[in-house]
Design goal:
The complex is a heterodimer. By secondary structure, chain A is an all-alpha fold. Helix content of chain A is 87%, strand content 0%. Chain A contains 6 helices and no strands. Chain A is elongated, with a radius of gyration of 27 Å. The mean pLDDT of chain A is 82. Helix content of chain B is 47%, strand content 12%. In chain B, the strands form 3 sheets. Chain B has an 8-stranded mixed sheet, sandwiched between helices. In chain B, helix 8 crosses helix 13. The longest helix of chain B has 18 residues. Classes of the chains: A mainly alpha, B alpha/beta.
Chain lengths: 166, 407
């Protein structure tokens, strides 16, 4: 009986070890994917930051009607915010690629759903961006025009115009 | 080369048929009556010239009057409404000048004279005084000196003239006319690389840059159009837009200039009228207060914090205590010029957002000048010009290092 118990324990240990050994390449792949994505994210964010600074993105953003974006950006720099967003996306993608190496079925569904949803997300972001720029431009036009004809409630009208934009 | 394409084909054909001219006189304004027949004015003005030049009158009044003088080979009248400054097809004052200058260039005229003031006060002497120095004394640009009205032409007195003086170093009372005369070589833009017709705002700076001869001449009292308060922001945008754009084009030139020099002034000294006309100071101060309450966010994109603080302090003053220091006003103008260059916000928004600040300056000036003599007005405007010159290093610093220099 003792032998049978010992045999069962051995088999269980072997099963655990073989399963763990089976997971090792996956873990290794995860680590490689994460490390690679960190490197890519670092390079890409540096490149994005350099490009945006070269085209004076921070100043242009204010001119396009997004002055408040600077206030909640790290170091008051929307360029830094964008570069960090790009880095985060690359890191997330790297992590998902790594995780997909561990369990194919579970992570495949997760990645598939996320990728499938991406166009909707991008479309919504684009509509939001254009709408916001248009709303700001129109509300600014109305505000300046109303002040110049001495309307005391100029600000209220401009806020109304901004709110009416979809 | 020419901008006549926007004019009716009949006008283009007429100008082509005429072929050449010595003098082109453009009547761009209204106010014509039996007593002030524009064509007769031009004909009378030619009598004072040493030699009678072949003259083409381009008249914005499409209908000739019944008693019009008969044209001959040396005196031709072209009538086209599109040369009028208020013509709907033209759209802007600048376009009327462009068409006139293009016609003069096409005819190869030695001199082009624009008459844009209301014809009620224009005399033949005006046209002679403007055209003669170009035709007979080789001047390239002759600008007018009007009898000074305390509260008229304040966009020119408060912005255009002192800004032009500080930037380009020449003391020109009315660098943008509106009545003026210029030579063929100035019209053709011989001082520039591009051989295109120069717009009105570029005439004086280009003449200075190219080292051309400039004079101003005393023409008399001008009848100013009544101030259109509803459209003041459009007027400001239409006038200041080309001026600020020109600053951008000539930045390398004006940054080297320090101080200013007088130019030849013909026809004596301009008198100043002791006006008693009321100016709506209360309304202007209210506009300034409303702007200070509502446009802080927009002004904040153009003006540095110290200026915004000064404006906030001013907005707490009542109408009778309201005084805008010249230094503050000059810095505001310079910062708006810089904002125009940097496109800090849409250029149209920027120029229109200046209106409450301009009204603040006008109110302050009117309160200060209400009871003073005519001589004191001249001195006051000279002081403002000196302030523009004194603050020029501020403009140069901000222009060169807009991010670094923000006191």
């Amino acid at each position: 009986m003792w032998d049978q118990a010992k045999q069962a324990l051995d088999q269980s240990m072997m099963r655990l070890l073989s399963q763990s050994a089976g997971l090792l390449p996956g873990f290794l792949a995860l680590i490689i994917a994460v490390v690679t994505s960190i490197a890519v994210a670092w390079i890409l964010s540096g490149l994005v930051r350099w490009t945006l600074r070269a085209i004076h993105f921070d100043q242009r953003l204010s001119a396009w009607g997004w002055p408040s974006l600077s206030e909640w950006s790290p170091s008051n720099s929307p360029a830094l915010l964008v570069s960090r967003f790009v880095a985060s996306v690359v890191l997330m993608m790297g992590f998902l690629i790594g995780v997909s190496a561990l369990d194919v079925t579970l992570t495949y569904d997760m990645v598939h759903n996320m990728v499938e949803y991406m166009p909707n997300l991008m479309g919504a972001a684009l509509v939001l961006l254009i709408g916001t720029i248009l709303a700001r431009f129109l509300s600014r036009s109305v505000l300046i025009g109303a002040v110049n004809i001495n309307l005391q409630y100029a600000r209220l009208i401009s806020v109304g115009v901004k709110c009416m934009m979809p | 080369m020419t901008d006549l394409d926007s004019n009716p084909p009949r006008t283009q054909e007429q100008i082509a048929e005429i072929g050449s001219a010595d003098l082109v006189v453009g009547i761009l304004a209204g106010g014509e009556s039996k007593e002030t027949n524009a064509v007769a004015l031009v004909r009378d003005s030619l009598a004072a010239l040493t030699e009678r030049p072949k003259t083409v009158v381009i008249h914005n009044n499409g209908n000739g009057s019944s008693d019009e003088l008969q044209p001959d080979d040396s005196f031709v009248v072209v009538r086209d409404r599109s040369f009028g400054m208020a013509a709907p097809s033209v759209g802007s004052v600048g376009a009327a000048y462009q068409s006139l200058f293009a016609a003069a260039a096409k005819l190869g005229a030695r001199a082009c004279c624009a008459v844009a003031s209301n014809l009620e006060t224009v005399t033949p002497r005006w046209i002679t005084q403007l055209a003669q120095p170009v035709l007979e004394s080789n001047f390239d640009l002759v600008t007018p000196c009007y009898a000074r009205h305390k509260f008229e032409g304040l966009i020119n007195s408060g912005i255009i003239s002192p800004l032009n003086q500080a930037l380009y170093g020449r003391q020109i009372q009315n660098p943008m006319g509106p009545d003026l005369a210029c030579s063929k070589r100035l019209l053709n833009g011989s001082g520039t690389d591009s051989h295109s017709i120069l717009p009105l705002a570029r005439l004086a700076p280009e003449a200075i840059r190219a080292g051309f001869q400039i004079a101003q001449t005393q023409v008399g009292a001008r009848l100013y159009p009544p101030t259109d308060w509803v459209n003041l922001s459009s007027v400001l945008a239409q006038i200041l837009g080309p001026v600020f754009l020109n600053m951008e084009l000539n930045a390398a030139f004006w940054q080297k200039i320090r101080g200013s020099q007088q130019i030849a002034t013909l026809g004596g000294t301009a008198p100043v009228f002791d006006e008693t006309a009321a100016i709506e100071v209360q309304r202007m101060v209210e506009s300034f207060h409303l702007g200070a309450r509502s446009l802080q966010e927009i002004w904040g994109l153009v003006l540095p914090p110290a200026t915004l603080l000064e404006i906030q302090k001013l907005s707490r003053l009542s109408a009778d205590q309201f005084r805008m220091p010249d230094q503050l006003w000059v810095r505001i103008v310079y910062d708006f010029a810089l904002g125009h260059r940097l496109r800090s916000i849409s250029r149209d928004h920027l120029l229109r957002a200046l209106t409450p600040l301009y009204l603040g300056w006008v109110a302050s000036y009117a309160l200060e000048m209400e009871l003073v003599s005519a001589v004191a007005v001249e001195e006051r405007l000279r002081r403002l010009s000196r302030e523009y010159e004194a603050a020029k290093p501020y403009l140069v610093s901000r222009w060169r290092w807009p991010d670094r220099f923000s006191p």
